[in-house]
Amino acid sequence: MRFANQNILVTGGTGGIGRAICRAYAAEGGRVMVADLAEAPAAAFADELGGGAASCALDVTHDAAWTAAMNAIEAQFGRIDILVNNAGFYAPNIAFEDMTIDVWRRHFAVNADGAFLGCKHAILRMKASGGGAIVNIGSGMSITANPDGAAYCGSKAAMLMTTRTAAKSAGKYNIRVNAVLPGAVDTPMLMGNLHKDGDPAAYLALMAGYSPMNRLATAQDIAHGVLMMSDPASHAITGVFLPVDCGNMPGA
Question: Which one is catalytic: 25, 90, 152, 173?
Answer without folding.
Answer: 152
